[in-house]
Amino acid sequence: MDATTSGTPTIQYHNIPDQPITAIVASPIPTFQRQQRHCFGDSSPGEFPLSANPSIVLHVLTACNLDPQDLAKLEASAIYTCATCSFFRQPANFTPDFNLSLSELAALDMCQKRAIFKPMTIEQQQELKQICGGSWKLVLRFLLAGEACSRREKSQAIAGPGHSIAVTSKGVVYSFGSNSSGQLGHGTTEEQWRPSPIRTPLFFRSLQGIRIIQATAGAGRTMLISDSGQVYAFGKDSFGEAEYGAQGAKMVTTPVLVESLKNIFVVQAAIGNFFTAVLSREGRVYTFSWGSDGRLGHHTDSNDLGPHPLLGALENIPVVQIAAGYCYLLCLACQPSGMSVYSVGCGLGGKLGHGSRTDEKYPRLIEQFQNLNLQPMVVAAGAWHAAVVGQDGRVCTWGWGRYGCLGHGNEDCESVPKVVEALSNVKAVHVATGDYTTFVVSDNGDVYSFGCGESASLGHNAGNDDGQGNGHSNVLSPELVTSLQQVNERVVQISLTNSIYWNAHTFALTESGKLYAFGAGDKGQLGIELVGNQTERGKPERVDVDLS
Fold first, then answer.
1. 156-542 has which CATH code?
2. Gap between the Cα atoms of 471 and 255, Å rounded
3. For a FRET experiment, which of 111, 172, 304, 363 has its CA 20 to 30 Å from that of 34?
4. Which CA distances in Å does 162 have to 159, 176, 220?
5. Distance of CA 118 to the CA centre of its chain
6. Which of the residue ranges 4-18, 268-282, 324-338 would you say has the lowest mean pLDDT?
7. 82-to-8, 44, 309, 435, 468 alpha-carbon distances in Å
8. Contacts for 23 with CB less than 8 Å, ≥ 6 apart
9. What is the pLDDT of residue 112?
């Protein structure tokens, strides 16, 4: 919010005399007249209302680059007023802490506005502070990073294997597509192409006003996460290749609370072919259904379905995002030194990013990003390859290079992250990966894709009505998806099928909440009615669901 719209007096920089900071901060401290420092209304021209907004103070003091001793004097005089008055003319919801610097207090004030932080007890907040490195500024970075890379509190679309999920910003969930295992959550096993909200009585009784903020879809199963950290699941409850084409041991056709996760406040979930991983609000990773041989950092029986914390290097490092491939897991970690990526699981094809093809039983840091001087901000795990977007907008890919899914102009494998040079003039903000397919979204909303062109899921050559052109061709280097430019909407999210067993389809979500789909639609997973012998759509088409 602009300070001028809040009623706070405008800062008159031209009236501030040019004098040393020692002249501004007099000694002793009591010479400051707190009663004359008003947030609103009576401040004299040139006076900076320190208590107007701690969030603004944080940026102003950083820009001023004051001497630490002088800054400490300013902080001591202003700490109380900053903690008892807010930018919106309301009292702060925490008591003043005289041990906090102004920048720390401002960071704490901003943390209090985050949806995940709000419901935490003081003890939980302090614990999170220690986990993040002992600073509220580090906690704030942790919270913002998680929101940015996982679209928390925002609308989203998930192109699952044969079925699809869409979540509005208000928490309403729509599902459509294949439903042989009840993965649509409607209480039946009938597939449907038309997006329908999940309205089962059991689900509504369970939620009681709680809204869904995250969703994930796997082969024959769906998981939903509420704003209170609870997880609901439906569909098959088994994992592994043996399930393909056969029923699992148990089917659940309506959303059911996952009892084993009740004591974990979950903010994200990821489903692989052999396992599920969840991320807690404190940044702890838990995995289940793939514990045999310690392949995911814990030694349990393969029939043990309970969640277990991921052991090893990430035990004391907070994670902001998880991404699951066919048989491996990527974790985006937030440390005081910066952002980093850890990988664990099967190393075939070099998809763990460590320069080899060996498996990793415990999470291991991918060191190549330090060599590239790249700060990872978003991770994506395809079935056999992976991708990262850096803070500077660069894109790195690694793993199996089949069909050109790495974007390096060939089909070679890369065992360490490699910058996609063909995107050197593009500032990327989002990346999505599937089965040998990659999509990149730029800061201006342009979309690029490369890799396997099966099922026309790349969106290229889609506008030819005469049947000419080859929308199914593999693309070895990033190409602009011109068909998405024609929708005249800024694209903010791409989701595509991440399964080796299902024909791929792709969703493009725009800034205004419009959803476009293309690719395979034989099970109704596009949310678009296909007629005759049609099994796919090559051109992006609007899905009749409003996610604004």
1. 2.130.10.30
2. 37
3. 111
4. 8, 9, 8
5. 19
6. 4-18
7. 14, 18, 39, 52, 66
8. none
9. 92
- Cβ 279 vs Cβ 267: under 8 Å: yes
Task: Using DSSP, state whether 479 is helix, strand or coil.
Answer: strand
Q: Per-residue pLDDT tens for 101-149? A: 888 989 999 999 998 999 999 999 999 999 999 999 999 999 999 998 8
The dihedral sign for the CA sequence 125, 150, 218, 340: negative
Give the number of other Cβ atoms within 10 Å of residue 444's Cβ.
Answer: 10
Pairing of strands 428-433, 437-442: antiparallel
- Tokens 């006003």 locate to 209
Instruction: State the average pLDDT over residues 77-101.
Output: 52
Question: What ranges do the domains of the chain cover?
Answer: 103-149, 156-542
Rounded to whole angstroms, what are the CA distances from 342 to 330, 346, 472? 6, 13, 34
- What are the tokens at 156? 């989203």
Residues with Cβ within 8 Å of residue 10, at least 6 apart in sequence: 3, 4
CB atoms within 10 A of CB 92: 17
Report residue 369: phi and psi, to 5°.
-65, -30
Q: Percentage of the chain surpassing pLDDT 90? A: 59
The model's pTM is: 0.81
CA 384 to chain centre: 20
Kindly report each contact of residues 43-46 with a partner whose C-beta sits within 8 Å and lies 24 or more positions away, as own/partner: 43/9, 45/12, 45/15, 46/12, 46/15, 46/16
Question: What is the C-alpha separation between 324 and 341, in angstroms, rounded?
Answer: 13
Cβ neighbourhood burial of 424 (10 Å; 0-12, 13-18, 19+): exposed
User: d(Cα 486, Cα 510) in Å, to the nearest integer?
Assistant: 12
